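[Help] Beginner question about ligand-bound structures

Sorry if this is basic. My supervisor gave me a protein sequence and a SMILES string for zinc ion and asked me to "get the holo structure". I don't really know what that means in practice or what format the answer should be in. Inputs are pasted below exactly as I got them.
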Amino acid sequence: MIENVNMSNKINCPHCKKDDIVKRGSYQTAVKGKVQRYYCKNCDKKFVLRGAFYRMRNTPKKITLCLDLFFKGVSTRKIQEHLQAFYPHNSSNVSIYKWIVRYSEMISRFTDKLSVKSGTELMCDEMEYHRLGKKNWFTDIIDTKTRFLVSSEYMEKRTNEALTDVLKSAKKKTGNQVKIVTTDGLMNYPVVLKKSFCVDKKRTVNPIVKHNIVNASAGEGFNHKIERLHNTIRQFTKNFRGFHGSVKSAYAIMKGFEVNYNFIRKHLAIGKCPCELAIPELKFEENKWLELINFSVKN
Ligand SMILES: [Zn+2]
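Answer (accepted):
No worries, everyone starts somewhere. Holo just means with the ligand present. The predicted complex, written as C-alpha cells, is below.
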C-alpha cells in the first residue's frame, strides 16, 4: 500500500485531525435530511462533516445513485426520468452529467494512488474512438491475473508522451511485480516501455521486464481477457452514444468507467470485483460509491 493513504472509516476532527470523536446531537435540513453533529474529545470542539457533498443541493444518496445507474449503462436522460418519479425536487440531466464528471475525477484521484497486488503480466491495448469527427483513443492496461484495470487514459492522440504516462502510472502502482508487458505491434511501444518499465531490448537473457509483442495483423489476436474488457467498454460507450462533451469530460467519464470496472461491478470471469484480489486491504460496507467518495476526501 502506498504510504499516507487513509482507508479507515473513522472520522477525524477537522481542527486537530485526531479521531477521538463522539456523536453529539443532530439537526434536520430540508434537502439533506438529518445532519450529524460531532464532538472532539481532544480539542473540545463541535463540528459537522462538510466533506464531498458540502454545498451540494442534493443528497449523497441521490448523487451516488446517479453514478451507479450511469455506469450500469443508463443514459442521463433516463436517470432524470427515474428521479422525476421519486424525488419532488428534480435535477436536470445536465446536472446529472456534471455530477458524474465531478465525482469520477474526485474518486480516481484517490484510486490512482493505490498500489496493486498484481500478477506478473500486464496487457496494454488501445481502442479507437470517434469524437466530434476526430479519431481519439482509449488506452488501457490490465493485470491478467486479477483483471484489475491498472491504468487507463482517454487521449486525443497516441503520442509517445501520452502512452508513456499511462504505462508509468501502471509501473507506479505495480512496483516490481510485473515481468512481462504484452502489447500490439504499435511502433511507439519499444520506446515507451523503455521509458516506463525500463525494458532493455538488448538484454535477451534474463530480462528484468520482457516486452511481449502480439502481432494482430498476423492473426495472433489478443487474449480473451483484454477482448472481454473491450467488449464491456464498447457496450458502455454505445449506451451513452459517444462522447459529446470536451476531451476533459470524456477523460473523466472513462476514469469513472475504470472505477466502476475495478471497484463496483462483479467481474463475471472471477466472480468478484477485481479490487478484492488486487487491493485486499480496501474494505467496503454498503454504498461503495459513497465510501469511495469519502476515501477521496480524506486523501
Ligand atoms: Zn479536535
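A couple of things worth pointing out: The first strand starts at residue 21 and ends at 29. The chain has a mean pLDDT of 86. Feel free to follow up in the thread.
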